[in-house]
């Protein structure tokens, strides 16, 4: 199993445990994510590209895994992802460069 798949598996289990303890919060969070990524003036792919930029700038490995996997499923190209990562680097500086490089690794794992 790859690095990001392992992270996602572990976090998914942890989130299930968290959902047992705070089901209303986790249901609301899931609804928020669904509503915020639904097609509107921006399509789901564009919204996921924004999310991956924020994940990189905030250095969240779990977010990188989940959102990169979704982007692959939505048919994003490596170049589209790379350009979104360039924006994240501009906003997040050196630490975002490190996470942008890791996000390309995740893309290759899921492709």
From TrEMBL:
All residue ranges annotated as the Carboxymuconolactone decarboxylase-like domain in the record: 23-105
InterPro entries: AhpD-like, AhpD_core, CMD-like
Keyword Iron: no
Keywords: Oxidoreductase, Peroxidase
NCBIfam families attached to this UniProt entry: ahpD_dom (TIGR00778)
Superkingdom of origin: Bacteria
Lineage, highest ranks first: Bacteria, Pseudomonadati, Pseudomonadota, Gammaproteobacteria, Enterobacterales
Species of origin: Morganella morganii (Proteus morganii)
Molecular function terms from GO: peroxiredoxin activity
Descriptive protein name: Alkylhydroperoxidase
Record's keyword annotation contains Signal: no
Record-linked Pfam families: CMD (PF02627)
Signal sequence residues: none
């Amino acid at each position: 199993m790859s690095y990001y798949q392992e992270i996602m598996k572990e976090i998914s289990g942890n989130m299930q445990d968290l959902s047992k303890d705070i089901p209303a919060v986790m249901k609301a969070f899931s609804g928020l994510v669904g509503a915020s990524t639904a097609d509107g003036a921006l399509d789901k792919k564009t919204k996921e590209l924004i999310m991956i930029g924020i994940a990189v700038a905030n250095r969240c490995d779990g977010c990188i895994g989940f959102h990169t996997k979704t982007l692959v499923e939505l048919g994003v190209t490596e170049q589209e992802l790379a350009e979104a990562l360039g924006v994240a680097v501009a906003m997040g500086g050196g630490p975002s460069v490190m996470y942008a490089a890791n996000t390309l690794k995740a893309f290759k794992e899921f492709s």
